[in-house]
Design goal:
The structure is a homotetramer.
Chain A (H helix, E strand, L loop, with lengths): L4 E6 L6 H13 L2 E7 L4 H10 L11 H10 L6 E4 L6 H10 L3 E4 L7 H14 L3 E3 L7 H11 L6 E9 L12 H6 L2 H4 L4 H17 L3 E9 L10 E8 L4 E7 L10 E6 L2 E6 L5 E6 L4 E5 L7 H4 L12 H21 L12 H19 L5 E2 L1
Parallel strand pairs in A: 1-2, 1-3, 3-4, 4-5, 6-9
Antiparallel strand pairs in A: 6-10, 7-8, 7-14, 8-9, 10-11, 11-12, 12-13
């Protein structure tokens, strides 16, 4: 295994936003190079994309099963695969590569059922493979710093959490022509939830990554607000954590004026932290003595475990790509260490399959609560 | 009745914040003059306060019953009374003045039981008296402007509302020496709720004043977070309005970093409005086309029905006193019109006893929901 | 002299914004009562205004000379006069009352020539009278707190100051129908400067009140940007202070988007402070260690010498009226102390005639610099 | 010439921030691949860096002259060179590659004398080579959008510009151990100016890119504030543009609390625009009617000529790397078009050698103004 790893991609064909975003994020650090792909169910599109990306034709595959098998056989096969297909094919694709002994990075939400998620975990353990679930937002330097601040006791014990993730892009009934919108609001393609599955899991995971708190039970209210919508487009979840603290999670796609408004506010016994992913270079910290601090990435107040991911000085803004890049950076470092025999679990600084499973559990509990009339449901 | 009205005050003795605040708010416009008072249960304190305020000693009373009776008998008796006592004596004091035929202004929450509130309403009607309930925040020019914007259809139909009112002043267990805090957390003085009764009713009323929407049912979760606290200090209420729209109200007194953070966000089918009472000179308006506007009090975008309350040009900040003053301003204008025989109900531009009753209903429904295990309760 | 003082007003007739604002500001505290006036050059308007304000007709005067003489003769004459006429009559009005032995409050800029200002100072000293110049913005609790912070060395030695006061209300050539605008841009009424005289003096005084630094020399560039304008509507002044520090002052009336944007940023050897008058409840403090603090009025971080002016808890916004009120509050306290024989100069906590004189000097130096081609001119 | 270009780098050795930043920025799009380098004057460091970056050893050079010559001779030689050395070697390095017929990207400020800059321009023209000067900030999508907004007349004619670029990192006298700081404040390494040369040129260029206005004359005041500093660390420049508009540029390295605070405010006859590079996803637009808009990258209000550079939807923050990447993106597109014979000058959407020359002229005029005692100096 050389220092620059080789990776393959499943999904991310011509025009696909998320595949492109993963490729750029990996490019940013140059720690891995794309050498194989099955970018689409249509082979012509895979060929087109592969050519654009300069990949040898013999490593462009008709389907992911073939790709998994052939790459596993090659002397110079890929070190890991990056799966960025629609959610309903995550399970099959992940399974194919795990069975072939190839490390996996997969987009969230991990699977459409808890059973599938647990099976992937079992497989990964059995094969001793690493598994990254790409919850982007925990990758921000400021998000990592909040984790360190809370672990260090800066705000005391966490008492209550207000998490929200409003967007406004589905506020209108007619979404004709917007492919992503058409897909999102169609139960055949999206499954049983839209806003909660897409956005709620990000809140759940970001809060967990920051605080270490696991959700114990939920009471959800999932609404279909826009006329003729078949899946939730605005949802509220009351949560209770394992330490007894409480939380409220709000997700919306009809909240006009919000672009991608993931915001986490954590109130503890000694202080409070506020973080807004659209301004990811800042942390707000309030203390009992009435002081309110604005902490900037890059300036003294950043812990080493967060600071090590910085690429630019303070005031030179890092954003979404860097957050995603940080996940891959740790994942790849772990892969290299594994190959060199120096890996241990404490090196892992990215969301793993356990985060993926928790996300699926969270969705299932919320769906049950809604079905039963907004009552408490244990995770 | 001369143009400058005469008023009396019950409560608001030496050191009392809220009585002082009401007096200053009324002073600001000079539309009414304080001429009588029963500022305390202790007569010496009433005398002391009356002297400080330059009130004739024969209009300083030992108790409010005497004050109501004697002022009603005087040729030059008070035109209205301002009641700023602790909540548990609102009912008795209001009743005394209504029965004596004197118009009433009373602090919120109106009473401790719905029955009492309804009785006051009955009395006011019977005697044909006006009744102001001083929900301060609806008095801001910007709050009034939001009402006009929504009524004019600027954001279409209201779909969901996020209301929050976090404070941080009760985050610590030990509140020894802070009189207001000691009173607030004591069930003997505060009744059955603390944060929800004090702050939640402000959210409920401000949303109503802005949108015209009445709450139809609630699901509340009232928490006692600080160790040894006997009343809720952090609460969340899911609400449904009569038009089918939904809402979430969060109140807290343990949210470190927040001073007096009443914030209302209203999402409609065509746009969204955000308003923050700590920055009461601004309105944020977002539209479907992606535009986000910051509207400043005093600048073109303000409706006449809101603009008429302005005292200063834009950029010359108006604040809390002006908001309270605006309530009294309309109340006094109505009293003058009533005396002159020109009054009609459409002139009323302040929260009335109906708002007061709705607040009490809201509290009772939330308490019932909490008691039954966080279930839906109709208003 | 009773505890509630009596005052008279010159100027502030029907429709006049600034007279109304001064009256409300004094009302807010109830420390003085308006009992006499000469509100206009037109006696009918004085009568009308006096009636509205409930003033006895025998204390409504045809001109300020008569008012000064007669009030001085009365047993119950006014304790001070409040002069809010256009700038060009400040001198004559102030002189009349000082000569009559009556304390004076006068709007800024004090006079149109330095000679006049110095004559008023001489008179006030001779008669042992107090003199308030109503530079509003130094009255904010936060402004006073900044003064204490800097005096306490919180930001070390002041090195450079960026002051700006942009407004946008004169951006259009045609101002027909806007009386204040018509007056402002007319050299016959405004004198030799418009933006710099009106706004620049506020920067100069606010910086002085905060830092104690006096301007030593200036280099100004005064521009007439809007077509056909005869006076400066956009100006920049480079300044040097007596301690060697530097500054830049920008004033504008053509800066679209700004309402009343006085902003002061003070950079020292150990920290920096930023303050914005449109959000007067906050102070921003940055330190060498990279920490950035937002200090709220009403919260722990406020010095007693500033905190004593607070009327409301943090988060209950105070604004422009309260700032003006604070000037009068200290002025009246000093007058009472003077009457009681307990006054000493250290009690003065408001801008005095010395501040007024400095403002006039500053304007004259800027005019000279502009005339000579933007060169340095000593104060 | 294939679609993925080949480039080489001069400078950017181990630990060098700016070389690393350029490499990552180019990586982000994958339009060019690094294949050759002379990363340091010390060949061992070049070898080390080259190895880390996976470059063939026969394309790692001892000096740039050798690199220019050998790469020009190769069939598969580099398509362009990226020069990120200290300023004083820009001229020699650029010259070597231009003479060898290789396109050049060079960091700003371009050269240390105007003569050198003009010679490079002559050479580039003679050889028909493209030349990118990497003024990062004009690359932001929002910066490009402002250019389109102004060109479309959205704010009318530009009247005055306030540009500032404060930093706080050199506020302390002792900078021992901070290599970049040591270099910056040393006249032997930095030349005749520090803050103005480094930061002022960014203001000058960003304003030009946004407005199209060229500076006609300047009046500068360059200060050495920190004790024992030999070069300016705080400077103000009054400017006049070719259209008669005015401007003020402030640069500082002693402004505690500022990280990298480039802020441009442009006031026109119909509106005003404000832009802050630390929050590069937003544009603030104010109009005569009192409306204030916040425009977000990615949302409707963005012109096609700016929008085409977007990689992520609104709310998924792009930052510094993307801005730099956008410069290279247009530069590389032009190189490809040139190779394919489809190039014309209207395709250029990056700062060229003309921008570089203007920067050098600006510095020279400011130095002259300071030397002559803060007087106007023509460009």
């Amino acid at each position: 295994m050389s220092k620059v790893l080789k990776y393959g991609m499943v999904g991310g064909g011509p025009g696909a936003l998320i595949g492109d975003a993963h490729r750029r994020s990996i490019n940013l650090d140059g720690k891995a190079q794309l050498v194989a792909g099955c970018f689409s169910r249509t082979y012509e599109k895979t060929l087109q994309m592969g050519k654009e990306l300069g990949i040898d034709e013999d490593r462009l595959y008709e389907n992911f099963e073939e790709m998994a098998r052939k790459e596993a056989e090659r002397e110079d096969g890929i070190d890991f695969v990056c799966i960025v297909t629609p959610n309903n094919s995550h399970y099959d694709a992940c399974k194919a590569f795990l069975e072939a002994g190839i490390h996996v990075s997969c987009d969230k939400p991990l699977t459409t059922t808890l059973e599938d998620a647990l099976e992937l975990e079992r497989l990964a353990k059995e094969k001793d493979l690493l598994f990254l679930v790409t919850y982007t937002y925990s990758g921000h330097v400021t998000a990592k710093n909040i984790r360190e601040m809370i672990a260090a006791g800066e705000i005391g014990e966490v008492r209550t959490v207000m998490g929200e993730y409003p967007q406004g892009w589905l506020a209108e009934e007619d979404v004709t022509g917007n492919k992503q919108a058409e897909w999102r609001i169609d139960p055949n393609l999206s499954g049983k939830t839209n806003s909660l599955g897409d956005l709620g899991t990000h809140i759940e995971n970001t809060v967990y990554q920051m605080t270490g708190l696991k959700v114990k039970r939920v009471l959800s209210k999932m609404e279909k607000i826009v006329p003729n919508r078949k899946l939730d487009d605005n949802s509220v979840v009351l949560v209770e954590y394992d330490n007894g603290a409480s939380g409220v999670y709000w997700t919306s796609q009809i909240a006009i004026g919000h672009d991608n408004g993931l915001r986490i506010r954590i109130y503890g016994s000694k202080g409070a932290i506020s973080w807004f992913q659209e301004e990811p270079e800042k942390i707000f910290l309030s203390k009992l003595d009435g002081s309110n601090l604005e902490i900037h990435r890059g300036h003294g107040c950043i812990y080493e475990k967060a600071a090590r991911y910085q690429r630019l000085p303070s005031g030179h803004s890092e954003g979404w790509f860097e957050a995603m890049s940080n996940l891959y950076s740790s994942f790849i470092d772990c892969l290299v260490a594994k190959a060199e025999g120096t890996f241990d679990e404490s090196m892992i600084d990215y969301p793993t399959i356990v985060d993926g499973i928790d996300g699926v559990k969270f969705i299932e509990a919320c769906l049950a609560s809604q079905e039963k009339g907004n009552v408490w449901v244990d995770m």
